[in-house]
Write a structure and sequence with these properties.
By secondary structure, the chain is an alpha/beta fold. Helices cover 40% and strands 14% of the residues. It is built from 14 helices and twelve strands. The strands form two sheets. Strands 1-7-6-5-4-2-3 form a seven-stranded mixed sheet, with helices on both faces. Strands 8-9-12-11-10 form a five-stranded mixed sheet. It is globular.
Length: 400
């Protein structure tokens, strides 16, 4: 029999909550969280089954698509880290984005979104939501005047990435939230680049915060997962009904992997961000590079805003090579430590060419508007030594 989570002091540091938050223990008193690999649950009686379907208690479960003890531990822990009342875990980060938006929207609603987004997020907004009668307006996310002009009384939600993928634009979360809340719109923020370690978007005004747990939360390149963090009303009355009936839930095994990863996430992300700052500074002005984009650098257009919202510049950066795609490919093929992959947030440093991978379905004109040039590379800094990463990058530049 599973015991409910032990109450924790409100004053605990997020790093401590990432280790202990939401833990449930069986009668055996295990230290490491248990994996409940079951899709169904047994009731003591027919009356108990009926009662549970009418209203389930906090540690009562019906079916793994609705919830599971291991998954619930992960949800509780993520809610504590983000500072929200509740959370719902999903099969992937895109399931979280799609679930958060689709669950609340219907034909005739209006959404305002930043135009600088991950390719799959753009697909949901441009193709999926509009197919079902939702109107979407795109704006330059860094321009509050554009948000102000686009948001109108019938706007139901605004959506943006706190740090855009892959060009690392920084959005004024508080400023956009104030504009959206003035008309009663929900603020949905994809905070995957910033992580809850370096930035809690809920503290800055976001109503709904989504993560791809596949990235920094796992941090080891092992499992897919996602999570929606929000108020209890939004999670249980809006998100859960949609997700449990459409099947976007997280598997118990993946939830267990994420729980174990959360124990080290604070240490990993802070170490990666510290290394990223060193790498960005070392690569500035290097021959063959047109620019280094990193929020922690003084020349970043939103450097001051980033410093006000976030602890450090984060783990992600972009490098733009002179010479376009040909130079970018030669650079990639000359790397010896940094890996070519379209994932991010891993313990291993990873690099990708967005124009031909994550954003390849966009037209050339769309990529140009977003600043995704043929020479742009997105770099996710891992846990390797900073000097080794810099030497690898400079060696690849020399080969170009």
């Amino acid at each position: 029999m599973t015991k409910g989570p032990r109450p924790l002091p409100e004053t605990l540091h997020p790093r401590t909550r990432a280790v202990h938050g939401g833990t449930r223990r069986s009668q055996y008193g295990e230290v490491s969280e248990a994996i409940y690999l079951t899709q169904g649950f047994v009731y003591d009686s027919a009356e108990a089954a009926e009662a549970r379907f009418i209203e389930s208690g906090p540690d009562e479960f019906i079916y793994a698509r609705y919830g599971n003890p291991t998954v619930r531990m992960f949800e509780d822990r993520m809610a504590q880290l983000e500072g929200t009342e509740d959370a719902f875990a999903t099969a992937s980060g895109m399931a979280a984005v799609n679930g958060a938006l689709t669950a609340m929207l219907r034909a005739g609603d209006h959404v305002v979104s930043a135009k600088a987004l991950f390719g799959s997020c753009l697909y949901i907004l441009e193709e999926i939501l509009t197919r079902f009668g939702v109107e979407v307006t795109f704006v330059d996310g860094t321009d509050l005047d554009q948000w102000r002009k686009a948001i109108r009384p019938e706007t139901r939600a605004v959506f943006f990435e706190s740090l855009s993928n892959p060009t690392l634009e920084v959005i004024d979360i508080r400023g956009v939230s104030d504009l959206a809340h003035a008309v009663g719109a929900f603020v949905v923020v994809d905070n995957v680049f910033a992580t809850p370690v370096l930035q809690r978007s809920a503290d800055l005004g976001a109503d709904v915060v989504v993560y791809s747990a596949t990235k920094h939360i796992d941090g080891q390149g092992r499992c897919l997962g996602g999570v929606i963090c929000a108020s209890r009303d939004f999670i249980r009355k809006v998100a859960e009904p949609y997700l449990k009936h459409t099947g976007g839930s997280l598997s118990p095994f993946n939830a267990w992997v994420m729980l174990k990863s959360l124990e080290t996430m604070d240490l990993r992300v802070r170490a990666q961000a510290e290394t990223a700052q060193k790498v960005a500074e070392a690569m500035q002005g290097a021959a063959g590079l047109a620019r280094v984009i990193y929020p922690g650098l003084a020349d970043h257009p939103q450097h001051d805003l980033n410093a006000a919202q976030m602890q450090g510049g984060g783990t992600m950066m972009a490098l733009e090579l002179d010479g376009g795609k040909e130079a970018a490919f030669r650079f990639l093929n000359a790397l010896r430590i940094v890996l070519i992959s379209n994932n991010l947030g891993d313990a291993k440093s990873i690099i990708t060419h967005p124009a031909t991978t994550t954003h390849q379905r966009l037209s050339e004109d769309q990529r140009k508007v977003l600043g995704i040039t043929p020479g742009l590379l997105r770099l996710s800094i891992g846990l390797e030594d900073a000097g080794d990463i810099v030497a690898d990058l400079k060696g690849a530049l020399a080969a170009v």
